[in-house]
Amino acid sequence: MITVLVVGTGNVATHLYNAFFNIDNINVSQISSRNLKNIPNTDVTIIAVSDDAIAEVSSKINNPFVVHTSGSISMKNLQNSTRKGVFYMLQTFTKEKKVDFKKVPFCLEAEHKDDLKILKKLAKTLGNSIYTIDSNQRKALHVAAVFVNNFTNHLYKIGHDICLTHNVPFKVLHPLIQETSNKIMSLPPIKAQTGPAIRNDTKTIKNHLTLLEEQQQKIYKILTKSIQDSLNR
Amino acid sequence: MITVLVVGTGNVATHLYNAFFNIDNINVSQISSRNLKNIPNTDVTIIAVSDDAIAEVSSKINNPFVVHTSGSISMKNLQNSTRKGVFYMLQTFTKEKKVDFKKVPFCLEAEHKDDLKILKKLAKTLGNSIYTIDSNQRKALHVAAVFVNNFTNHLYKIGHDICLTHNVPFKVLHPLIQETSNKIMSLPPIKAQTGPAIRNDTKTIKNHLTLLEEQQQKIYKILTKSIQDSLNR
Ligand SMILES: NC(=O)c1ccc[n+]([C@@H]2O[C@H](COP(=O)([O-])OP(=O)(O)OC[C@H]3O[C@@H](n4cnc5c(N)ncnc54)[C@H](OP(=O)(O)O)[C@@H]3O)[C@@H](O)[C@H]2O)c1
Ligand SMILES: NC(=O)c1ccc[n+]([C@@H]2O[C@H](COP(=O)([O-])OP(=O)(O)OC[C@H]3O[C@@H](n4cnc5c(N)ncnc54)[C@H](OP(=O)(O)O)[C@@H]3O)[C@@H](O)[C@H]2O)c1
């Protein structure tokens, strides 16, 4: 039996609490991060609050082992005087949407080996992809996630804009988008690269630029150059 | 019964020929684009050759209705003196990889209504997503595809590079990549946007930039700006 306290009532806290609640060997409780009185003493205390509040909230907790759930905050940011760790799930959580924890990568860190073992045990009750990732690695992962998630979504948005402007249904592009993301499961992205940039197809590139707005052109040019530079390394 | 001739022996020609070969109501034949002698006379002649060769190859064909398969070449580029059209499939074809035509969007164009009907009939024997797309729309679609496919793959590549540099397995990011691409099936990309740029989280953005190489920084900055500008429109 592992006893767990979830601190917070946001997206991550809610999903985590509900998930642990259904696990036999876990005894989970949850409290608001706004009212830190009568804190249950548990094996693991998971602070799932906004990044900026992690330091303050953790400073008020005396439980033996305290972890946060942030991808961008270092373990040392925790201000509890007891043992520290990180329980970061690399996935987007929104309250409305069900989470399939089996697909969520758990990125774990702890000051002490035994604590890392506890976090692994905990993560394994929910998921299959468990990684030991230190604070520096986690920061890198977070930046990489901005590229493959936030920026990729913005490229979808630009594609959507171009379709709107030229009166084409965006859904024509759905299968291509799916194929592009499926490919990296079996092929390193550098090997999956196609298109006018890597073919150095100057004529098509020039044609494309005439169809774009100023900011779209800038993005088109810099990404084209970056693709071409990646060939010469 | 529709009689079809596929001209070319490349990726698209091979997949198309094989697919039509299995359809009862289609009588398909194939010839090389290098040797245009004894050309079978068919209802539809599909020229599936490199973009640059479409004009030349089509100029040598006297069949009644000739179409090409290119996303970036206009219908008028065809040099046959008979009827013209386009049979563009928005998907990546490589010889090794099986194509699920049921998922392929067919983008059709023809000078004459009756020819468009024939192309639709033809496309429907293979697929479910059939669109009438004129040459200007197709050009826009092709540019949009560069953003959502080629450029997106390059962002995956940058994510992969960042992981390599910081010794993190790229596969930690696989589920996030899948989720990002699945989201646009149900949500317009502008509504799916998350991350530090749209939150205007200057602290995180600054932190991220310190972890990146020069060209990665440039891309990070321009995409961040573009995301933020999209809020103000
Ligand atoms: N959402 C995701 O997709 C995701 C994914 C991976 C990791 N994370 C990380 O998980 C943590 C929580 O994220 P979330 O999405 O669950 O956030 P959220 O839904 O915005 O919830 C934030 C929680 O923090 C509390 N809080 C905010 N400021 C506070 C303060 N000054 N003092 C005390 N409590 C405060 C909020 O309480 P009130 O409701 O009372 O304001 C709320 O319970 C963050 O570190 C985040 O980086 C999030
Ligand atoms: N591949 C895709 O993902 C894809 C997707 C949608 C649309 N398309 C379009 O489909 C068409 C064919 O593409 P593909 O990928 O099938 O090309 P491919 O595999 O490179 O095959 C090109 C074909 O064109 C022939 N060819 C090249 N130059 C020629 C010339 N000067 N004279 C006569 N024949 C010539 C080649 O003959 P040799 O083998 O004898 O050189 C070969 O049969 C293009 O318009 C392309 O834009 C391709």
Automatic annotation (TrEMBL), chains A, B:
InterPro entries to which the protein is assigned, alphabetical: 6-PGluconate_DH-like_C_sf, DUF2520, NAD(P)-bd_dom_sf, TM1727-like_C_sf
Entry-linked Gene3D superfamilies: NAD(P)-binding Rossmann-like Domain, ProC-like, C-terminal domain
Pfam families registered for this protein in UniProt: DUF2520
Domain DUF2520, chain residue ranges per copy: 104-227
PANTHER family: CONSERVED HYPOTHETICAL ALANINE AND LEUCINE RICH PROTEIN (PTHR40459:SF1)
Name of this protein: DUF2520 domain-containing protein
